[in-house]
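User: Study the chain.
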Amino acid sequence: MKTILTSFATFCILLAALCSCGKGQGPSSSVQKGFSSISGIEDRTLEAVDVSPLTVSLTADAYWSVSTPEWIHSSDDFGIAGSHEVILTVDSNTGTSERTGTVKFSCGKDERSFSVLQKALEPKPEEQTKTFSFRLMSFNILQSTDEAEGHTWAEYREKPCKVMFQETSPDIICLQECRRTQLNFMKSNFPQYSYFQYAKDGVKKAGYEDVEKCDDDAIFKNGGHRDVIALRTDRFTMLDWGRYWFSDTPDVSSYSGALFEDGGTPKLTLWLKVRERATGVVFYVWTTHFFPRGENGRKQCGIMSVERMKAECDDNVPVFFCGDLNLAYEHASLQPLRQWMQHAATNAITTEKLPTYTGFRTDSNTWTYIDHIFYRNATASTYKVVNTPIENGTSVCSDHFPIYADFTVTVNQ
């Protein structure tokens, strides 16, 4: 029925046009009919999708028509003499090849045309799965100025620490309570790492920000102990960094505010944004040291840590958070971390939940479990408390045992 009506309409228009040509034309009937004006006739190159309609404005002296490729649609396929605005809509090109076509307007022997080239839809890159594995260690090395008898750094602890790092061979090391002497020891014996550090007591130069250029002699105040993150230089590169204190004034060394003042001493968190060189995958590493006392302050440590990570890290990026938290895993103050992250000692495929703090006491019944590695968007295959005999024993390295976890990161990009 639609075809019959369209044919009938075409017949009527043609009949009207013929009649108008024969009425009282006299000598002027031989004048050539065509377009007295037409605009919008120019060659076009169009995008593959979301193409804006094309407009052609014309004034015809007689019956006119337009022909288009099948992927271009005209608001009017023909018309009688007079002024018209023709709207051309273009289908999206979902193919992998560009396409061309011609739009032609005809009025008698007057023909006007333009070509249209439409780009192909760029194919979506194939999703690539990128995977890498690494070993992350957290270790409260016990500052070298805290020299209990029989546990001095140079005489008793330095050598077993060296052997421990050699035997465990972590790819990333997060240290707490690291003094200048100990940092120099690490740099001298393990030059394969890049060291990033910040002292909990702040820095001498106000506004100093470049963690890569930390110079102990010029920058750090009183040789105060610091958080350190060491990255295997051949595997990782640092993209960005930050630090904050658990305080109402988190950008300066402090523990101010009613919710923090029972902490008793400034405590610092250092974080790095890191790229794994082989895959280009980006992830974050955070190392921290929570207050040793004060229920209000320690509760805020957990809350503030998760708030900071959420603000800095996209939801799907791998994040690793570790350190001396001075709390058992089950403590209520760690609930924000338990809710947002997984726990290496709890979720690793091969694991052991053993004490990490000895206080140099020989009675293992008095040891506690206060050092932790949390993570998200990764898989922990192994979690280990390094408490096996090394030289004089890892119990000599510090009043804390080192802990490490082996992780695999898989990202679809």
